[in-house]
């Protein structure tokens, strides 16, 4: 850890025993959860925004859903996950949290489940799922965001792969990285959104709906 990392980490708040357990579980089981500096940034933005309804695309084990619910009191979280093992783990962790009644877990593929018919509009959407599908997620869920609402999109660096020349990207990941680049270019140029990229954690893109 260099001096800059140590200074950044000094601003990370203490977490409950449950959150620490989830962080260790994620590390031990190779489950990707948001890096601490990035999620602290996201949570602070949410505290400022004070959304009443948040949609999360990609629950994993429920870590970010619980943290968002704790950061913004009284908000409702709807979170989508398709992996059966992660769903089972998320259910267990969420049930043990104090925020369980404010978190609704939808089981299924985020590109196939019907959210619009059964839920009101959202103040915020957090996308942290299949990186090569970000354009499709944005197209499907941005219409559900209220005017003035915000879409938060994690993993824009894709663990550093987005910064590489395409010839240096592993062949099996090139399509995903191309899709990510195309999405980033498209959303930055989209006049319907005011978009800003934050080089924190694995890269956080924030899009305000005009």
Automatic annotation (TrEMBL):
GO MF assignments: magnesium ion binding; O-methyltransferase activity; S-adenosylmethionine-dependent methyltransferase activity; tRNA (uridine) methyltransferase activity
Reactions catalysed according to its record: 5-hydroxyuridine(34) in tRNA + S-adenosyl-L-methionine = 5-methoxyuridine(34) in tRNA + S-adenosyl-L-homocysteine + H(+)
Enzyme class: transferase
GO aspect biological process, one term: tRNA methylation
Binding site for S-adenosyl-L-methionine: 34, 64, 81, 109-110, 128
Taxonomy, superkingdom: Bacteria
Subunit structure: Homodimer.
Name listed for the protein in its UniProt record: tRNA 5-hydroxyuridine methyltransferase
Organism from which the protein derives: Candidatus Kurthia intestinigallinarum
């Amino acid at each position: 850890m260099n001096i800059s990392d140590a200074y950044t980490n000094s601003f990370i708040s203490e977490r409950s025993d449950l959150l620490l357990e989830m962080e260790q579980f994620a590390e031990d089981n190779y489950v990707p959860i948001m890096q601490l500096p990035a999620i602290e940034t996201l949570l602070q933005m949410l505290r400022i925004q004070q959304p009443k309804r948040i949609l999360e695309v990609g629950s994993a084990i429920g870590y970010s859903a619980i943290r968002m619910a704790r950061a913004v009191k009284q908000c409702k979280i709807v979170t989508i996950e398709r992996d059966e093992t992660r769903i089972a783990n998320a259910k267990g962790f969420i049930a043990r949290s104090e925020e369980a009644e404010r978190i609704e877990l939808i089981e299924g593929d985020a590109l196939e489940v019907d959210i619009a018919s059964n839920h009101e509009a959202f103040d915020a959407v957090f996308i942290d799922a299949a990186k090569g599908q970000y354009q499709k997620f944005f197209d499907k869920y941005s219409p559900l965001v209220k005017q003035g609402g915000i879409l938060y999109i994690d993993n824009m660096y894709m663990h550093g792969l987005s910064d590489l020349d395409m010839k240096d990207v592993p062949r099996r990941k090139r399509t995903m990285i191309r899709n990510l680049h195309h999405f980033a270019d498209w959303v930055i140029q989209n006049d319907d959104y005011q978009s800003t990229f934050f080089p924190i954690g694995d890269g956080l893109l924030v899009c305000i709906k005009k």
